[in-house]
Design brief:
Number of strands: 0
Order of helices and strands: HHHHHHHHH
Shape: globular
Helix content: 55-70%
């Protein structure tokens, strides 16, 4: 049973309130994940800033969602799988890519499949890919910077997935159409 509160702007600690306002202005609502993270201004600030930083990297929106959703699936995060399915749809990620990520099946595009595979390797190996796994990633056309951005995205998912596991975050109505469970 979770003891975590889903905060409103009014109930959140003072340092979290402006961040929740920012989320509400940008998204039109405050996702329950952010409202839960608000308990710790440190967590909420870190999560939101790391998201902003990742969005400025060299990975495209589709590539970022591939890494994020691969981690969500591997970490068994139902909340984040539903949320990122919705975000991916809103950002124009190809429906076949989204389905492959939700179902753990290969992506038809070889470069994107190499990214999905590498993201899983980073998660599964806890950051210890083999030389062959790194070489395959580079051969697919990715750079050293992309390797590091996969690590950033993996770190971001540790923050959100683990929060959702511990807090038992309730799925927002806006994400419920994309509810997910492990097959």
């Amino acid at each position: 049973m979770s003891t975590f509160k889903t905060h409103s702007i009014e109930s959140a600690p003072a340092a979290s309130a402006p961040l929740l306002k920012k989320a509400q202005q940008s998204l039109g609502f405050i996702p329950n994940l952010l409202a839960t993270m608000a308990e710790s201004p440190t967590m909420l600030t870190g999560y939101m800033q790391l998201t902003d930083v990742l969005n400025k990297g060299e990975l495209s929106e589709t590539e970022r969602q591939i890494v994020l959703m691969t981690n969500n699936r591997l970490n068994g995060c139902k909340y984040c799988m539903a949320a990122h399915t919705t975000i991916s749809q809103m950002q124009g990620v190809d429906a076949a890519v989204i389905e492959a990520l939700r179902n753990n099946t290969p992506i038809d595009d070889p470069k994107l499949e190499a990214l999905r595979t590498f993201a899983a390797v980073i998660n599964d190996s806890r950051g210890w890919p083999t030389e062959l796994q790194l070489a395959a990633f580079f051969e697919a056309g990715y750079s050293n910077a992309a390797v590091l951005e996969v690590i950033v995205a993996t770190s971001l998912k540790v923050m959100s997935n683990y929060t959702n596991h511990i807090a038992e975050t309730e799925l927002d109505a806006g994400f419920s159409a994309n509810k997910w469970s492990e097959a």
